[in-house]
Amino acid sequence: MNSKTAGFFQEYEVFSKRTAASPMQYQFSLLAPNEEMALILAQENFMRREPVADIWVMKQSAIKKMTPDERQSLPRLDNKDYRNTKGYGYLKKKWRKYEQEMLDEKEIFSWGGESKK
Amino acid sequence: MIRLETDEEKHINFMERIYAGEKIEADDWMPDEYRNVLIKLISMHGISEIMGALPEKEWVPKAPTLKRKLGIMAKVQDEMGHGQLLLRVTEDLIKPLGKTREDIMEDLFNGKLKFHNVFHMEAPTWGDAGLIGWLIDGAAIITQTNMLNASYGPYARALKRICAEEVFHAQHGEAIILALAEGTDEQKRMVQQAVERWWEPLLMFFGPGDAKAVGTSKQDITAKYRIRSKSNEELRQDFFTKYVPRILSIGLTIPDPSMHYDQEQEKWIYQQPDWEKFKEIVRNKGPKSQERLRLRKLSYENNEWVREALARPNDAR
Amino acid sequence: MTELTEPLFKKAVVELLYQLADDDFILAYRGSEWLGLAPHIEEDVAFSSINQDTMGHAAMYYGLLEQLGEGDMDTLSHARGISERKNAVLLELPNGSGHYLKEPRYDWAFTVVRHFYYSHAKKVKLESLKHSSYEPLAHAAVKISMELYYHLMHWTVWFNQLMNAGGEAKRKMLEAISRVEQDFLDVCSLGPLSAEMASLKLIDGDDALMQAFHENMKPVFDALFIPYKGEFQQHSGKGRYGEHTQELHQALATLTEVYRTDPAAAW
């Protein structure tokens, strides 16, 4: 390692959005001397062939990552039907009694486009 | 009761994880042997991309039309980009050892870090530029797709990006070669001569069939750790199957009269390259080894002031 | 578009297009010689995109010339002799000493300054060209401006950071600035037909463009606390009049090396 130039090689993580409406997504990491430089290098290094609507760069050291031990805190038991629609499927039958359709996910998400009709 | 795992237990857990198809990440515990084989493999892969840009770079300013100039610029840019991805993966692996990209470059310059045999060779004509894109990239696609499911997550992700771009490279190479193969007699001769120059280096590209040929082989370790699945020879055979018929179909001749597919043995029979020569080449004694290393070293030293200048304000921040 | 039937209008359009095309073409060529040799890998990749964009812009201008019956774009970019080239001399100068394959000691400060100044001059011209009386050129200017935005941003970051770094970097940058300014008048010049180009409303005149350029540059220098003189010369020749250096001669020899072996062949 060269002590005079080592500071040039800072690690930055790059995130980008494909369209204005898309969520930020992790891309890859690059080396740059500072965040301004990281930002002007990001698109051409990782998104040369795809549309980009926005870019974030972040110093790698600013990210708190999980250790493998901490990752063991992630799994959950599969006993939480009550938080999912799965736990309420029986409503379909009930509504049928009243001659009503059940308002399921598909139906509810279709409402967003209704005003266009 | 909490009890610290012994290294042996860690090792057993580690092997269970990779055999279950789990991916290992940069900060995870890993056996030294695993870390070391990854560093060796990926740093060589990465630096080969960087050094591989040089023979083709020769042809960037010289490409014969605007479209070809743009195409080969984009292609060589990708090679640098692949080097970037792979060096980043390596840098995260060597970080716990207190090493950085600068150490990788030093290792290249002092001969500790080797680069692929093909990038030590001459590329004297435009036909070579096309052939590198077509067949060397073709060979690279075969070895790289073989590792897309590598147990090391960061490498597998980098390879996924790389292979996506290799598809463009292969087609870029094919476009140049087909134009020449369908062109004037002089153009046809250009491709044929390039095939003759590159045939042996291409065979060498996949590495020796077994450890006996050059003394050592990391084939077994990479297979054990689920980094790659096929052997050197299997990959070379795959290459023949995919490319020999194509080479012949456009009227080119392979400079090996013994080359044929043996139906009974179900494999291609071919003349072994000179593995002694291979050893010499990768020890930086190939025809262009020193010149290309010099180019890389000079550009590195020549721009040192830039890195030094921008390292300073950042340190203060 | 009736103007095209007027010989002077067409002559001025063609002249302007050659300047624009040759400028972008030769600078992209010089940039492409850097491939693999930039200060670090990430910059190498980014710089190559800028060179590709710039050569793409040249191809658009050559394409417009092709439509005007000047010949196909590969002939225009590869077969024209040195005295027919209309690029500014500054843009044909090598990146430093040595050859791109042998002992290249390329000068990053010169590259940053040349690109930074050129991108600013290109922006001023494109802004004016967006209102050009030659509509195809006005359309091209809108498209090209889109990509130039990134080029300017990229070179501005490099320019400012190396200037702010002080020490050897600043010394090299100041040296590069005076080198670039020595030949920058040529970049800003529109050559022998500049008066006609302005009166035909193809593009603003030399003076108006130069003034706009100074207005854009001065704040950059002010922010760096460096006096902006804005005094340019054309020390090495007048490219718009077909005057060029030996360096262009060599560049053309290299960039046409394969093409020349058989200009009629399909490559």
Automatic annotation (TrEMBL), chain A:
Natural source organism = Jeotgalibacillus campisalis
| Superkingdom as given in the UniProt entry | Bacteria
Name of the protein this chain belongs to: Phenylacetate-CoA oxygenase subunit PaaH
Q: What's one Pfam family the UniProt record gives for this protein?
A: PaaB
Organism placement in taxonomy:
Bacteria, Bacillati, Bacillota, Bacilli, Bacillales
From TrEMBL, chain B:
The entry's cellular-component GO terms read: cytosol
Source species? Jeotgalibacillus campisalis
Q: Which Pfam families match?
A: PaaA_PaaC
- Write the protein's name: Phenylacetate-CoA oxygenase subunit PaaA
Q: Which Gene3D superfamilies match?
A: 1.20.1260.10
Q: Which domain of life is it from?
A: Bacteria
Please provide the Gene Ontology terms (biological process) for this protein. Answer: phenylacetate catabolic process
Q: Which PANTHER family match?
A: 1,2-PHENYLACETYL-COA EPOXIDASE, SUBUNIT A, PHENYLACETIC ACID DEGRADATION PROTEIN PAA
* GO terms for MF: phenylacetyl-CoA 1,2-epoxidase activity
TrEMBL record, chain C:
Name any one Pfam family assigned in the record: PaaA_PaaC
Protein name as catalogued:
Phenylacetate-CoA oxygenase subunit PaaI
Q: Which GO terms describe its cellular component?
A: cytosol
- Entry-linked InterPro entries: Aromatic_CoA_ox/epox (IPR052703), Ferritin-like (IPR012347), Ferritin-like_SF (IPR009078), PaaA_PaaC (IPR007814), PaaC (IPR011882)
**Single biological process term from Gene Ontology:** phenylacetate catabolic process
PANTHER family hit by this protein: 1,2-PHENYLACETYL-COA EPOXIDASE, SUBUNIT C (PTHR30458:SF0), PHENYLACETIC ACID DEGRADATION PROTEIN PAA (PTHR30458)
Q: Which organism is it from?
A: Jeotgalibacillus campisalis
Task: Name the domain of life.
Answer: Bacteria
